[in-house]
C-alpha cells in the first residue's frame, strides 16, 4: 500500500485565522508603543541624572509590582474572560503613557524638569497593568489556535513582537531627537490606543470555567506546582531567566550610546532595535522551515551564543560591529524564545494556561526589569564594560549548569 503523501509545510498557517491576525496586529502595535516608550524614558532619565543606576531603577520600578501581582494576573486569566482582561490592561497602558506625556509636556522647565520620581511612579503603575496583561495575552493567543499550530503561531507571535522592538526603539530615538520627549510620549499613547482597537475585532468564545475549589492561594500554588513538576519546562524557563538576568545589556545601552560609541539618541534607537532586527530575520526563517530537530541542544547552544555576543559587544568600539553583535544576539534569542513558548503551550492543560503563563512571566518577564537593575548596579560597582563582560560569562556558566542538571532537556529531540 502506498504511503500517504506528506502534507506540505504552510509557513502562514496561523495567520490564515482572522482573529489571530487581529491578535497579532494588536500585539504588534502595543509592542511598538512600549518599546518606543522604553527608549524615550531611558534617555529622558539619563539626561536628567547622568547616572546608570537611575536606568536600573526604571526597570526595578516596573519589576516590583509585576512580581507581586503576576500570579494573581494568571489566576484572573484562568477565571475570567481573557480578551476582556487584555482590553482593560491595554486601556491602562494607554492611561499610563498619557500621564508620561502630560508630565513631560506640562513641566518642560523649572524644578520638576529634572525630577525623575514622577516617571518612576508612572512606570510602577505600568508594572501593575503588565502583571495582568501578559498572562492573559499569552493564554488568549493559545486559545485562538489548535494545538497543531502552536509552534507556527509562536513563531509569528515572537517575530511580530520583535518587529515592534525593531521599529519602536528606532522611532523613539528619532522622534525624541527631532521633536522632543513630549511628542514621543504622545505617539506612544496613540500606538497603544491602536492596539486596544485591534482587540475589538477578535472573535473569542471563552471556554467554560469550572467552579472554583479552594482559595485563590491554593489556585496559585497549583500553577507553581505544575511548573516545578515539569523538569523540561522548568529547565527551559530557568535557563532563560538567568541568561536574561545576567546577560542583557539593554538597560545600559544609553551609556554605551553616549559615552562609548558617542552616537546620541538616534544611535541609541538603532542599538535598541538591532537585537529585534536579528530576531525578526530569524523568525521569518523559522516560519519557513519544518519543526526543529534536536530542540533541547539547539536551545542550549542559542543561549550560549547569546552570552558570547554580549561579551563581544562589551569589548566593541565600532558602532557597526556593535549593531551586528546585537543583531546576532537577537537572532539566537528568537530561537530560544520560540522553543520555550511552544514547550509551555504543549505541556500545559488549557485550564491552567493563565497561571502557568504567569509563573513563566515571573521568571522571564520580570528578569528583564530585574536584569536592568542588576546591570545598573554592576555598572556602578564594576564599571560599564566589565559589568557586561561579567554578565556574558555568567550566562555561559548557566548554560553549562543547565545542560548538566537537566539532561532531559539536552537530549530532547522534538517538543512533545
Description:
With 416 residues, the protein is mainly alpha-helical. It has a single domain (15-202, 219-411), classed as Growth Hormone, Chain: A (Up-down Bundle), CATH 1.20.1250. Helices cover 79% and strands 0% of the residues. The chain contains 16 helices and no strands. It is globular and about 50 Å long. It starts with 17 loop residues before the first helix and ends in a 5-residue tail after the last helix.
End-to-end distance, in Å? Answer: 29 Å
Structural class assignment: mainly alpha
**Approximate strand percentage:** under 5%
The CATH C-level class name: Mainly Alpha
| Tally of helical segments | 16
CATH names the topology as Growth Hormone, Chain: A
In round numbers, the mean pLDDT is 80
Reported for the largest beta sheet, the result is:
none
Order of helices and strands: HHHHHHHHHHHHHHHH
Bulk shape: globular
What is the domain total for the residues? 1
Rounded to the nearest angstrom, the radius of gyration is 21 Å
Task: Break the fold down into its secondary structure elements and pairings.
Elements: H1 18-49, H2 52-79, H3 82-106, H4 117-143, H5 150-179, H6 181-199, H7 216-229, H8 231-247, H9 253-260, H10 264-287, H11 295-315, H12 319-347, H13 353-363, H14 365-382, H15 384-405, H16 407-411
Helix pairs in contact: 1-2, 1-5, 1-6, 2-4, 2-13, 2-14, 3-4, 3-6, 4-13, 5-6, 5-10, 5-12, 7-13, 8-11, 8-12, 8-14, 8-15, 9-10, 10-12, 11-12, 11-15, 14-15
Amino acid at each position: 500500500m502506498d504511503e500517504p503523501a506528506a502534507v506540505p509545510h504552510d509557513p502562514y498557517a496561523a495567520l490564515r485565522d482572522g482573529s489571530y491576525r487581529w491578535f497579532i496586529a494588536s500585539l504588534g502595535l502595543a509592542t511598538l508603543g512600549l518599546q518606543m516608550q522604553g527608549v524615550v524614558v531611558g534617555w529622558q532619565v539619563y539626561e536628567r541624572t547622568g547616572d546608570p543606576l537611575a536606568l536600573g531603577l526604571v526597570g526595578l520600578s516596573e519589576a516590583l509590582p509585576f512580581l507581586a501581582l503576576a500570579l494573581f494576573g494568571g489566576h484572573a486569566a484562568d477565571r475570567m474572560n481573557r480578551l476582556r482582561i487584555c482590553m482593560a490592561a491595554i486601556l491602562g497602558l494607554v492611561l499610563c503613557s498619557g500621564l508620561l506625556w502630560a508630565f513631560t509636556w506640562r513641566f518642560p522647565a523649572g524644578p520638576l524638569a529634572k525630577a525623575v520620581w514622577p516617571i518612576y511612579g508612572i512606570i510602577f503603575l505600568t508594572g501593575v497593568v503588565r502583571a495582568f496583561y501578559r498572562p492573559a495575552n499569552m493564554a488568549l493567543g493559545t486559545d485562538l489556535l489548535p494545538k497543531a499550530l502552536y509552534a507556527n503561531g509562536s513563531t509569528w507571535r515572537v517575530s511580530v513582537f520583535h518587529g515592534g522592538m525593531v521599529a519602536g526603539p528606532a522611532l523613539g530615538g528619532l522622534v525624541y531627537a527631532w521633536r522632543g520627549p513630549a511628542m514621543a510620549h504622545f505617539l506612544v499613547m496613540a500606538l497603544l490606543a491602536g492596539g486596544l482597537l485591534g482587540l475589538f475585532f477578535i472573535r473569542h468564545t471563552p471556554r467554560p470555567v469550572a467552579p472554583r475549589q479552594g482559595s485563590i492561594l491554593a489556585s496559585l500554588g497549583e500553577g507553581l506546582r505544575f511548573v516545578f513538576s515539569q523538569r523540561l519546562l522548568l529547565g527551559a524557563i530557568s535557563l532563560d531567566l538567568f541568561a536574561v538576568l545576567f546577560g542583557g545589556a539593554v538597560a545600559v545601552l544609553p551609556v554605551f550610546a553616549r559615552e562609548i560609541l558617542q552616537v546620541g539618541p538616534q544611535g541609541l534607537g538603532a542599538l535598541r532595535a538591532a537585537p529585534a532586527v536579528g530576531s525578526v530575520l530569524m523568525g521569518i526563517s523559522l516560519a519557513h522551515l519544518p519543526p526543529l530537530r534536536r530542540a533541547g541542544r539547539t536551545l542550549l547552544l542559542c543561549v550560549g551564543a547569546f552570552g558570547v555576543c554580549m561579551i563581544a559587544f562589551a569589548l566593541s568600539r565600532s558602532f557597526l560591529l556593535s549593531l551586528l553583535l546585537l543583531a546576532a544576539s537577537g537572532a539566537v534569542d528568537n530561537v530560544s524564545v520560540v522553543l520555550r513558548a511552544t514547550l509551555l503551550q504543549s505541556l500545559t492543560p488549557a485550564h491552567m494556561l493563565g497561571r502557568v503563563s504567569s509563573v513563566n512571566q515571573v521568571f522571564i518577564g520580570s528578569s528583564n526589569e530585574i536584569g536592568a537593575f542588576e546591570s545598573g548596579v554592576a555598572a556602578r560597582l564594576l564599571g560599564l564594560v566589565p559589568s557586561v563582560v561579567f554578565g556574558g560569562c555568567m550566562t555561559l556558566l548557566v548554560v553549562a549548569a543547565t545542560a548538566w542538571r537537566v539532561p532531559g532537556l539536552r537530549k530532547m529531540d522534538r517538543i512533545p
